[in-house]
Write a structure and sequence with these properties.
alpha+beta, 7-stranded mixed β-sheet, 6-stranded mixed β-sheet, 27 strands, 38% strand
């Protein structure tokens, strides 16, 4: 089913902005395209079409964009395949469609926008030690006119962290939102650009009068005290300290577990993570005036039983703080609600569109019910279309730097600059 949203609450130039969206759960790609096309058909040409398709259609994906372009009009086409699809129907009901075929298409008309879609070959990156201008030329977007960035990465791409670091280097303080697309066994990539299926990375920079505000909800609650790192080798924690005590990470963890409830100890078996300190982590999303030290949640890779060391999916340094974290549905729900509410409370004007890139480990497996993350958003923004995908890794900016996250919901709230009082800087 499709829907049409008139955004008449925006200021003069933005009052003509529109977001048309459709979602189909048809089993065949042709039937899904027909349903979406029938609901979105019209004479106007969209500025940007965002397309998210289930990997259930993997073998047919090269036909997807040509089929859509035969029915719909848009200047730029961009999207990816996902392990699940998020989309909004005509009745304003947004669904997280997991483990079954689905196609979500969003058509955006954004007067005053400066959009620069890009597709980049990631086999050879510009030098991180070279001039930032090399990266800017590679992407093709002027940093002076870039307010924010949507970034989608193929799961076969190597050096994803170097790619993200390079883009942060080229576009400092520019919020970035996106994800790593879903893997599949077909002999082509997972990204959509123009009328092609590609690999590497694709994206779009937003400039002019529009920007994407990044809100990252990690979905964990801290357990135990904050520890200081005393000894570490790259990503392997060897010794921690707390107050006057120094010991191995495993020894400290055993003390933390002793203070947990029986239910929490049961969750630890499959939901234990480590929070690694990020000094400038922004609580409440980009644009918040409140900044404080926070933690980026990272996977625990393994334990050395001989010395109690712990390997973590993040390189760390001596003096940095860490804290054990437990992934839990109630904590995830509360955090997502608070972060979204803080972002939305900064202005009385809702966003045009909500992009949601969520981890495959969220959804029903985390919340125990369908539509967990979108239900949280619907408590706050009832009439804003939401679309996106379940990712193999989520990309979101916190504290002025972009990271690849896990088990996270990364939101991109599409806003007109006039909705923020200090529009020149607040969204950075």
């Amino acid at each position: 089913m499709g829907s049409y949203f008139s955004l008449n609450w925006l200021f003069q130039r933005a009052s003509k902005a529109t977001c048309r969206t459709a979602l189909s759960e048809q089993a065949s790609l042709e039937s899904a395209v027909k349903e979406v096309g029938d609901n979105l058909k019209g004479e106007s040409t969209a500025d940007l079409a965002l397309v998210f398709a289930s990997t259930d259609y993997a073998s047919d994906l090269p036909r997807l964009l040509p089929l859509l372009k035969a029915r719909l009009k848009a200047r730029h086409w961009l999207g990816c395949a996902g392990g699940g699809v998020i989309g909004t129907r005509s009745d304003l009901i947004t669904s997280e469609v997991e483990r079954k075929p689905a196609l979500s298409v969003t058509l955006l008309n954004l007067p005053g926008a400066v959009l620069h879609p890009f597709a980049i070959n990631t086999n050879s990156l510009p030098d991180l030690d070279g001039p930032s201008h090399d990266w800017q030329q590679w992407v093709g977007s002027d940093p002076l006119t870039t307010n924010s960035m949507l970034l989608l990465v193929d799961p076969t791409t190597r050096s994803i962290n170097d790619l993200i670091s390079g883009l942060d280097y080229a576009y400092p303080s520019v919020p970035t939102i996106g994800g790593i697309a879903g893997p599949h066994n077909a002999a082509h990539g997972s990204l959509f650009f123009g009328d092609q299926v590609v690999d590497g990375a694709v994206g779009c920079t937003f400039g002019g009068e529009w920007f994407l505000e990044s809100v990252v909800a990690q979905g964990c609650k801290p357990i135990g005290p904050v520890f200081a790192i005393e000894r570490v080798q790259k990503n392997v924690l060897i010794e921690l300290s707390h107050e006057e005590s120094r010991d191995s990470p495993v020894a400290f963890l055993q003390r933390v577990l002793a203070d947990l409830t029986e239910r929490e100890r049961d969750l630890v078996r499959h939901s234990l993570f480590l929070g690694v300190e990020c000094k400038d982590l922004v609580i409440g999303g980009t644009g918040s005036p409140k900044a404080q030290a926070g933690f980026l949640v990272r996977n625990l890779i393994g334990v050395d039983p001989n010395n109690g060391a712990v390997a973590v999916a993040e390189q760390m340094r001596v003096g940095q703080n860490v804290q054990f974290q437990l992934r839990e549905a109630d904590a995830s729900r509360q955090e997502a609600f608070q972060l979204l509410r803080a972002a939305l409370d900064r202005t009385d004007q809702p966003p045009v569109f909500g992009l949601l890139m969520a981890c495959l480990g969220r959804g029903e497996s985390l919340y125990g019910v369908k539509n967990g993350d979108v239900a949280i958003a619907r408590e706050l923004i009832q009439e804003v279309p939401i679309a996106g995908a379940f990712c193999n890794g989520e990309i979101g900016s916190v504290g002025g730097a972009t990271h690849v996250h896990g088990y996270t919901a990364c939101w991109g709230l599409l806003r007109h600059i006039s909705s923020i009082e200090d529009s020149s800087k607040n969204f950075h």
